[in-house]
Design brief:
This protein is α/β, with parallel strands linked by helices and 447 residues long. The chain contains 17 helices and 20 strands. Helix 4 crosses helix 11 (300-308).
Length: 447
């Protein structure tokens, strides 16, 4: 936290400081794991279900933490601790105060699907000219966002921050900290419906961000999304998509298992881009990257070079070719919209098509119907075989009909791969992260 001191943190959260370090001592990163502390960091002591961070305050200070943020001071500890009634609230106040000291452009990204791909693509594009700070891993919530903000240093020229929520009001808390100069909305889809109820609720929760984007900021949204097309805001709007009415649109799409090509058109500008990965959903990420690049004044050559430098992250629609099959490893997360996109991508590949599907979580009372409908979509698109397991497997099977087979657990499904998968098959593996379908992906790689 360049130029931000213990005293600034105390003032921001109205805390009580106890310790020997001077209030003018500079603070570094926000850290919640004492084992990761480096000299000058701010250690935040969270109370968890199994671990209480307060028990590690002394260890953090021993490792060189400049100060700790906590709700109590361990007995006998006389070094620097900012004491507050609520650590989470205090951390958000500190992060918000630090953000107000920064003048660099910040891109805030939200949506039901594609946030991480958008973050990676936008960062790749902006990195063609500037030194960028981006959200690391999945640090996109009310703990992760302050950690990300704290890593912005004086040599960074822009930041790209992913903002994930599951309930009403959460985006307000994130946006108060981030205050993005550019807001990117990827898609309003069927995610977290257990808490947000319906698509209108998802839209309302996501667009809480608009109140914290400056009036001279820019809102970049998916023009192919019916809900996002209806958004009214005081900021300048820029839409992206395949539709003719989109400000930044994709044309002449070509796909192979190794790359995706298209033209990105904006007014009199036309950029032929090569995305070094497979999937129609990545065209949307490229459009988001191009829209941000155009907004921030990048040249066509810089945008094209940035898109070419994009790399997929983890198990997000990664294409793996083995001697016997082509695997679309997309088991990082799932919801009905992401699953349908994955099915569409699968059907672009030649061969026999197999979907291995697990549960989609946090869909509320409509979960059975949504699993059934998603599987029905697979059958309608011409998928040859659907294999599934999980609490919702029977509903998935009912939607897919005769092409589906349910298994009691992952082990049984993996044991049946030898009889179900044929040489030359294209296989999509898709489930929410907690379903641990990466075990199935690994078995297929060894198949």
């Amino acid at each position: 936290m360049t130029g931000f001191t213990i005293g600034d943190a105390v003032k921001a959260c109205n805390g009580a400081y106890r310790g020997t370090n001077s209030l003018s001592t500079p603070l570094g990163r926000v850290i919640i794991d004492s084992r990761e502390i480096q000299s000058g960091d701010l250690f935040v002591a969270y109370r968890g279900e199994r671990v209480d961070g307060h028990d590690y305050i002394s260890a953090a200070l021993d490792r060189g933490a400049a100060c700790c943020l906590a709700e109590r001071v361990p007995e006998g500890e006389e070094r620097g601790v900012i004491v507050t009634e609520n650590v989470q609230r205090a951390l958000e106040q500190i992060a918000a105060a630090y953000r107000m000291t920064l003048s660099l452009p910040i891109v805030g990204i939200t949506g039901s699907v594609g946030k991480t791909s958008a973050k990676e693509m936008i960062s790749a594009v902006l990195s063609s000219r500037w030194n960028i700070l981006k959200t690391d891993k999945n640090l996109n919530n009310q703990i992760g966002v302050p950690m990300t903000l704290s890593r912005i240093e004086k040599d960074h020229e822009a930041a790209v921050i992913e903002m994930g929520i599951s309930g009403f009001g959460e985006m307000t808390e994130l946006a108060k900290m981030v205050r993005p100069t550019i807001g990117v909305f990827t898609l309003i889809g069927h995610a977290h419906l257990e808490f947000l109820h319906d698509l209108d609720g998802v839209l309302r929760a996501k667009t809480e961000m608009l109140d914290y984007i400056p009036k001279d900021g820019v809102v970049i949204l998916n023009g192919d999304d019916e809900k996002l097309r209806s958004v009214h805001c005081s900021q300048k709007k820029l839409s992206f998509g395949f539709g003719e009415n989109c400000d930044v649109r994709a044309e002449h799409l070509e796909q192979s298992a190794d790359e995706t090509r298209c033209d990105i058109v904006c007014k009199d500008r036309c950029m032929h881009v090569i995305i070094p990965a497979f999937g129609r959903h990545l065209v949307y990420a490229a459009l988001e990257g191009a829209a941000v690049g155009i907004t921030m004044g990048l040249t066509d050559e810089e945008i094209i070079r940035g898109i070419a430098g994009f790399r997929t992250v983890g198990r997000r629609a990664a294409v793996v070719r083995t001697d016997k099959l082509t695997l679309l490893d997309d088991c990082y997360n799932s919801n009905p919209d992401a699953l349908k996109s994955g099915i569409d991508s699968l059907m672009e590949l030649p061969g026999r098509h197999v979907c291995i599907l697990g549960d989609m979580l946090e869909l509320g009372p409509e979960a059975p119907a949504m699993h059934s409908e998603s599987a029905r979509y697979a059958a309608q698109r011409g998928v040859d075989r659907v294999l599934c397991c999980g609490a919702m497997a029977r509903f998935t099977c009912s939607g897919a009909g005769q092409i589906a087979r349910a298994f009691p657990d992952r082990a049984a499904l993996i044991a049946a791969l030898g009889e179900e998968i044929r040489p030359g098959d294209c296989v999509l593996v898709k489930a929410s992260h907690s379903a641990h379908f990466e075990e199935i992906s690994e078995a297929l790689k060894a198949f």
